[in-house]
Design a protein that fits this description.
6-stranded mixed beta sheet; 10 helices; alpha/beta
Amino acid sequence: MGRKHVWDSPEAAVRQSGVIEEGDALLLAVSGGADSTALLCCLAALREALNLKLAVLHVNHGLRGETAARDSAFVEALCAEKEIPFFLAEVDVRSAVATEHRSIEDIGRELRYAALEETAERWGKDLGRPVKIATAHTEEDAAETVLLQLARGSGLKGAAGIPARRGRIVRPLLAVSRREIEAYLARLHQSHVEDESNATALFARNRLRREILPRLCAEINPEAVSHLARAGQYFREADAYFEALSREKADRLIHREKGGAS
């Protein structure tokens, strides 16, 4: 594997990602953390050149009280500064966990994406055009997903990690490292907020991010994150190939008849 590309700026990575097209209407998922703040700044910078229509959704998960309100206020103020419409969704993760007996991580993700889909649908009707949903997943997120899925025993499909595009959801920063994100925000003198739950070791993904991936990079290979993210791409390509091959074989070998197949 060759050395990963180091981007001059996230704007260059977005242009190369292939998931943002001229004239797109984009609903940005913005928590106020470094990654999503960079996504907002980056797409705002490209708005005129690519004729983009932008709006932001911030989701309050109902878990963090005053600091969650602080995050909402930060994102709303940043949107006002950049003249981008701001939407707020409030969801009750604790109640859902109590009734469905699944992890806070899983429920939170599910409710967040449901809120994004609902808001994109409503805003799209107002605009009279389709809306894409842009999330701020980075190279580290892709690597974490691959490693987590492999550790859990996933096959090709699970280990394929995070796709750059799934339905209306696009991830234009997937080839950008967190170090590049932080350098970009520093150049802009742009602040962000930190979700204190990211520092806890209670969640598996946090342990990967804070303990395991740094050790892999420090003790095994400095490019470990890039290589894991790229492996996810290879797994995804392999999975797509075998899916296409199996469909081709099925179409050739299975004869459909009335009431069944042979």
